[in-house]
């Protein structure tokens, strides 16, 4: 029975000076966010949060991971997700919870030992909730990063059809194992889909070629050969040609061309297409 | 009793279409059958269609290279057709580049390749 009292006491602590505490809380949160979110929005968020917290404490939940506080946690999840998406720092997100502790400090100054005890218990719950907020914040950021990585991967590896039976992959950006895997799979699938026997890998947009990148390229070319297609590597810049030779990378019998145009010409010739300049046209 | 892969004849080309999971014994039987038939039917080319093959291991990879070598000894050119992207990637990762084996995207292109190769040798 005594325990029941102390629990509702904690709720009492929150309800006692409610308006002043909430106002102070909102003020300090708005201050820390430096006007990047409107006061009205913060006001709405924090009031909802406060109400949920009071309700949970009245119901007797003091465990931050318990059932009673699930409503509070849901609100916090939404809050930290929004903050993460809008680009706030972890501190600016956590302060939304931790500032509530500060709002209680004035009441503590002239309170009894019992008040201090209640403050400490509340403080423990708030600390746990703050940790939860940061966890959610981090998880959201990780989700954002991984979805961006996927988007980037899709953006940067198009397979284009240049001619009937000739496809090309213009590679842009640094090549690592994961990207090469995607490029390889897309290229091979495109060979099957379009029935192309000639493939051109254009590395004009690749900033640097090291032994690993070369290894990846060679693998892709060998795989294409296994399927019955011929690969040409084009767009090797002078600087990169020097690096490749300096590193001692052997391209073996793989055809390399300086420009995509040369590679296309070769591919067309191999597929039995002759390019003839129109009589009297141009030069 | 292990399954046997049928060997079909189109003109002077033998067609082997692999439709079943390749067990080691099946592969060995196929090698024997193929060697015999190349001789008995005086074949000039062999087309191995692996469109239906989804999983390969190093044994199957070596089998393709072995068949190609055997056929070449018997004066027949081997073309492997219809390799799936996933299979090609697996073979590359296994370090098998099937050096002496010709490849083509599909059966039609494989037969065309053999015709071209035959025309080239006739000219010489």
UniProtKB/TrEMBL annotation, chain A:
It comes from the Bacteria. Signal peptide: none annotated. Keywords: Phosphoprotein. SUPFAM superfamilies: SpoIIaa-like. InterPro entries: Bact_StressResp_Reg, RsbRD_N_dom, STAS_dom, STAS_dom_sf. The keyword Phosphoprotein applies. Pfam families: RsbRD_N (PF14361), STAS (PF01740). Residues 156-267 form the STAS domain. This is Polyvinylalcohol dehydrogenase. The lineage of its organism: Bacteria, Bacillati, Actinomycetota, Actinomycetes, Kitasatosporales. The gene is rsbR.
TrEMBL record, chain B:
SUPFAM superfamilies: SpoIIaa-like (SSF52091). Transmembrane segments: none annotated. PROSITE patterns: STAS. InterPro entries: Bact_StressResp_Reg, STAS_dom, STAS_dom_sf. It holds the Pfam family STAS. Gene3D superfamilies: STAS domain. Residues 3-114 form the STAS domain. This is Anti-sigma factor antagonist. The gene is rsbS.
């Amino acid at each position: 029975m005594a325990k029941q009292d102390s629990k509702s006491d904690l709720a009492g602590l929150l309800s006692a000076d409610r308006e002043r505490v909430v106002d102070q809380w909102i003020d300090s949160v708005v201050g820390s966010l430096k006007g990047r979110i409107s006061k009205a929005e913060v006001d709405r968020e924090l009031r909802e949060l406060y109400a949920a917290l009071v309700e949970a404490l009245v119901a007797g939940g003091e465990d931050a991971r318990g059932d009673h506080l699930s409503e509070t946690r849901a609100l916090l999840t939404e809050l930290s997700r929004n903050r993460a998406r809008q680009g706030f720092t972890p501190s600016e997100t956590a302060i939304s919870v931790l500032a509530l502790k500060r709002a209680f400090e004035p009441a503590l100054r002239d309170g009894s030992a019992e008040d201090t005890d209640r403050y400490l218990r509340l403080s423990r719950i708030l600390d746990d909730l703050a940790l939860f907020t940061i966890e959610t914040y981090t998880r959201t950021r990780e989700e954002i990063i991984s979805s961006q990585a996927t988007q980037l991967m899709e953006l940067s590896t198009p397979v284009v059809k240049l001619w009937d039976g000739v496809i090309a992959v213009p590679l842009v950006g640094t090549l690592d194992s994961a990207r090469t895997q995607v490029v390889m799979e897309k290229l091979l699938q495109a060979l099957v889909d379009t029935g192309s026997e000639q493939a051109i890998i254009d590395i004009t947009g690749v900033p640097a070629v090291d032994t690993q990148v070369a290894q990846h390229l060679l693998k892709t070319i060998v795989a294409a050969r296994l399927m019955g297609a011929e690969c040409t590597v084009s767009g090797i810049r002078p600087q990169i040609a020097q690096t490749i030779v300096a590193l001692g990378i052997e391209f073996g019998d793989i055809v390399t061309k300086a420009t995509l145009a040369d590679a296309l010409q070769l591919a067309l010739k191999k597929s039995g297409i002759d390019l003839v300049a129109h009589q009297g046209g141009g030069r | 009793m292990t399954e046997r892969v049928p060997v079909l004849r189109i003109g002077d080309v033998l067609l082997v279409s692999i439709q079943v999971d390749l067990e080691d014994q099946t592969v060995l039987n196929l090698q024997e059958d193929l060697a015999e038939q190349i001789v008995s039917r005086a074949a000039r080319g062999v087309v191995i269609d692996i469109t239906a093959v989804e999983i390969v291991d190093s044994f199957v990879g070596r089998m393709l290279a072995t068949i190609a070598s055997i056929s070449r000894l018997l004066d027949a050119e081997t073309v492997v057709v219809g390799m799936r992207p996933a299979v090609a990637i697996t073979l590359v990762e296994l370090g098998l580049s099937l050096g002496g084996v010709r490849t083509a995207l599909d059966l039609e292109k494989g037969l065309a390749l053999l015709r071209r190769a035959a025309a080239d040798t006739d000219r010489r």
